[in-house]
Amino acid sequence: MEKTKLKKLLLNAVKILISIALLYFVFKKIPFRDVAKLWSTINVFYVILAAVFFLGSQVLSTKRLEIYLHSNDFNLDFRSNVELYFLGMFYNFFIPGGIGGDAYKVYILNKKFGWSAKKITSSLFNDRLSGLLAICVLILTFSAFLFENQWIILIIALIIIGIAFTFFITKKFFSTYKDIFFKTFSMSILIQLLQVICFILIMKSLGLNDNFTIYTVTFLGSSVLSLVSFAGIGVREMLFLQASKYFNFDPSVSVSASLLFTVITAFFSFFGIIFQLRKLNLKLTEK
Question: What is the pTM assigned to this prediction?
Fold first, then answer.
């Protein structure tokens, strides 16, 4: 157990160092004063609207996880799911050296209801897998607008293969979830689209009104690569900086938008402390 904790601490330490190193490199190329100058001209209305769409994506994510839990007859009610979800966000964002958000969910649900830790973990894993598949499908979909027509057939083929392969994995190793696969996948697509809209609104708040397709592909790509850093910080900014070398867009605006997205994420993650400070009162759905 101690070795596991040490390994987790070291992994989180590495992620934090990666985030710091990437941000250092980004701000050597783009002085923070340029970002601050852009923020001073921000349209607050668009930022508030972006926050609403981000919140919607998180609430829908809570509902998706609820479906996975219910597949194992873990009938946690929606309000309890929301509290636990936002508490998990708080752990993931503000306590990188401690217990992770998903690990906390497994611990608390196992302790409170005696549910199988293995089954809870499988629910969380498939929930994440559904989200990852949706991101990859959307990257390919939006990329189709960036390539010539002859590439579209290949892109469609990759999308079909990706969905079919993931469904095969789910059916073979996690058969409990095969009947909800396409329902949760559809929800995952909507969740990611809400986050894309959130990011587009952030860019509009900074006065940007074009090149949304490449920004969207880069943004979605950073969601996948965020696994190697702390909460995606640094990776997203670095990816936008590098993409600006190959596509015609202002790196200062994209990095500023990326940091604003992180601020919005941190804002809602902080709400989890409310459920940390008061005792969780998890309840089951009434039958």
Answer: 0.88
